């Protein structure tokens, strides 16, 4: 389904959904320390969501077995929470979705466990987050999807980082994934035109090496072919007449 222009009531629920999601991810950032496992984080987010009458949008989506995707190091996205304790220096992506009143928001961040990011890891995380914000700057009614893609690509130009081609941003709201796809590379002026009050998830997915990815035998975990570290930052936004509203930011 192509993402619909949302009604005023739907937008109210999207705002609540995004705020709940942002608050829970802030909590994840605080509890994710060496010795804590992905299953611990999964239990945390599930109980936080339940406490505010929200549903975890990923649980059961296409059969995904848990509430949050947790992908460490060379795992790129869609990692299944497990009992391995995080270790100092792990580069971990937390990707979470909330359904509140039928409206879904989707957001992700990457952090280094137990220490301040430095060196290549710092470069990777900072460039990926900056590329997300660069993409968001292009959003307004009348812009083309390709404007976002081209801006993300150009933000990463000259960094030597890999832009994963096979994973894309997307429309979001009534479902986790709505059309259109929003690639992280492309040409300005191409692709579908954005309308006011559409909701979109923008998510550059970037590696320290080559952009090729492969799927694990579990059918979910995506990792880099060359073993390089990967990062992802994602926000759900609402398209405005003259810009965008970030729904998943505190
Ligand atoms: N945020 C993820 C994405 O946009 C959605 C994960 S759904 C799940 O691809 F089923 F994999 F959890
Ligand atoms: Co997404």
Describe this structure in words.
The chain has 250 residues and is of the alpha+beta class. The protein has one domain: Creatinase/methionine aminopeptidase superfamily (Creatine Amidinohydrolase, Alpha-Beta Complex), CATH 3.90.230.10. The protein contains 4 helices and 15 strands. The strands form 4 sheets. The protein has a 5-stranded antiparallel beta sheet with strand order 8-7-9-14-15. Strands 1, 2, 4 and 5 form a 4-stranded antiparallel beta sheet that branches. Helix 3 packs antiparallel against helix 4 (145-156). The longest helix has 24 residues, at 8-31. The radius of gyration is 17 Å and the shape is globular.
Task: Provide the residue-averaged pLDDT.
Answer: 98
Largest sheet geometry: 5 strands, antiparallel
Superfamily at the CATH H level?
Creatinase/methionine aminopeptidase superfamily
What small molecules does this complex bind? 2-amino-4-trifluoromethylsulfanyl-butyric acid, cobalt (II) ion
**Number of extended strands:** 15
User: What separation lies between the terminal Cα atoms?
Assistant: 29 Å
What are the salient characteristics of this protein?
five-stranded antiparallel β-sheet; globular; binds 2-amino-4-trifluoromethylsulfanyl-butyric acid; binds cobalt (II) ion; single chain; 250 residues; 4 helices; alpha+beta; four-stranded antiparallel β-sheet; Creatine Amidinohydrolase; 15 strands; 28% helix
Concise structural overview:
This protein has 250 residues and is α+β, with helices and mostly antiparallel strands.
SSE topology:
Blueprint: H1 8-31, H2 38-51, E1 55-56, E2 68-72, E3 75-77, E4 91-100, E5 103-112, H3 119-137, H4 145-156, E6 162-163, E7 169-171, E8 178-182, E9 199-202, E10 205-207, E11 213-215, E12 222-224, E13 230-232, E14 235-240, E15 243-246
Antiparallel strand pairs: 1-4, 2-4, 3-12, 4-5, 6-10, 7-8, 7-9, 9-14, 10-13, 11-12, 14-15
Helix pairs in contact: 1-2, 3-4
The structure holds 2-amino-4-trifluoromethylsulfanyl-butyric acid (MF3) and cobalt (II) ion.
The site of cobalt (II) ion has 5 residues, from loops.
């Amino acid at each position: 389904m192509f993402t619909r222009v949302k009604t005023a009531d739907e937008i109210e629920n999207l705002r609540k959904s995004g705020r709940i999601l942002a608050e829970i991810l802030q909590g994840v950032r605080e509890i994710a320390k060496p010795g804590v496992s992905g299953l611990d984080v999964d239990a945390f987010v599930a109980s936080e969501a339940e406490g505010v009458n929200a549903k975890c949008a990923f649980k059961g989506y296409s059969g995904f077995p848990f509430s949050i995707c947790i992908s460490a190091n060379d795992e790129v996205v869609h990692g299944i929470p497990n009992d391995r304790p995080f270790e100092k220096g792990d580069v971990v992506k937390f990707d979470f979705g909330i359904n509140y009143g039928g409206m879904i928001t989707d957001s992700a961040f990457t952090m280094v466990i137990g220490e301040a990011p430095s060196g290549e890891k710092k470069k990777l995380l900072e460039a990926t987050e900056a590329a997300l914000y660069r993409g968001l700057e292009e959003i307004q009614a009348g812009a083309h999807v390709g404007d976002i893609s081209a801006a993300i690509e150009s933000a990463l130009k000259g960094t030597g980082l890999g832009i994963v081609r096979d994973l894309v941003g997307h429309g979001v709201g009534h479902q986790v994934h709505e059309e259109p796809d929003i690639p992280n590379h492309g040409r300005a002026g191409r692709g579908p035109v954005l309308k006011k009050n559409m909701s979109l998830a923008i998510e550059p997915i970037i590696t320290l090496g080559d952009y090729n990815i492969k799927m694990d035998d579990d059918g979910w975990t995506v990792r880099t072919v060359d073993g390089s570290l990967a990062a992802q930052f994602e926000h759900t936004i609402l398209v405005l007449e003259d810009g965008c509203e970030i729904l998943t930011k505190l």
